Amino acid sequence: MSPSLAPTRSRGAGRHGLAVALAAAALAAPGFAGAQGFAAFLAPSRFDLTIEPGKTRREVLEFHHVGTVAGKYRVSTNDWEFQRDYSVKFMDELAPDSCRPWVAIERRDLTIPPNGKYRFRFEVSVPPGTASRECRFALMVEGQEPANVEGANLSVPVAGRVGVIVYVKVGEAAPVLVVNPAGVRDIKGAKLPVLAVSNKGNAHGRLDGFLTGKDAAGNEFEMAPENLPVMPGMDREVAIRPVAEEGRKLPDIRYPITIKGTLEWGKKRETVEYRFLP
Residue 220 half-sphere exposure, CB side, CA atoms within 13 Å? Predict the structure, then answer.
């Protein structure tokens, strides 16, 4: 471990936090939170790393503070878990088999000048002899100075808190996804084809690929699966959405629709052809 980085295990355990807790302030974009006490873009919005046992990987989380006054931030690590509704719960206390003791961060508190940038360093050191597995933790970035958010009947202090997820595949850890068509679902007012995805591996996976849909009216358009994580042992549904061409609205699907192309996850590529009825 670099002597300039502080091991995160020195922090005491204590409280639970909700996924990106901003009270009345909302995320304006991935890796961004806006409130007077928190006005920063963070990049990247997540890390996907591969590290061999006995090795160390050093990475940088870039801050861009867009506030008009200096921003004060506190950085820590959390464990996290998916809930039944796929929301994320962050936890300060160490989870069983947590890998946060492998993590060292540059510092816990930092101040960034107006419109300033900062390259925040952290590293992950995997102990020798670690079996193949996936290590998962979050870098939590919190505004240190709460700000008042006012509404018609509301005036409460809030502080921004953002979790940047870090996935670390150790050794040969990999997803093993089983994908099958699951029908059509009504998702936020849109009827979309859905895939049932099961992960039989020991690392999370995400569907990607190049798909073309042809609907009952003969319309053809590019489609793509949602970029959702499927954790080891998890079953979840992943919608396939039309991809809008620049400057055009999303096309309406007239069922039935046939979808062909290639799905990808990890090092796996699979040619598929699915037909979805209304």
Answer: 4
In contact, 101 and 10? CB cutoff 8 Å: no
Residue 45, pLDDT > 50, answer yes
The reply to whether 23 and 159 lie within a common domain is yes
pTM: 0.82
Tokens linked to 145: 């100075």
Burial environment of residue 267 by CB neighbours within 10 A (0 to 12, 13 to 18, 19 or more): exposed
Residue-range definition of the domain harbouring residue 240: 177-276
Q: Where are the beta strands (DSSP E) in 200-231?
A: 208-215, 220-225
Distance separating alpha carbons of residues 11 and 36, to the nearest angstrom: 27
Question: 136 with 112, same domain?
Answer: yes
- Count of domains observed in the chain: 2
Beta bridge partners of 81: 89
Q: Which of 155, 170, 185 is the last residue of a domain?
A: 170
Winning range, highest mean pLDDT, from 8-12, 27-31, 113-117, 119-123: 119-123
Work out the average pLDDT over 21-45.
53
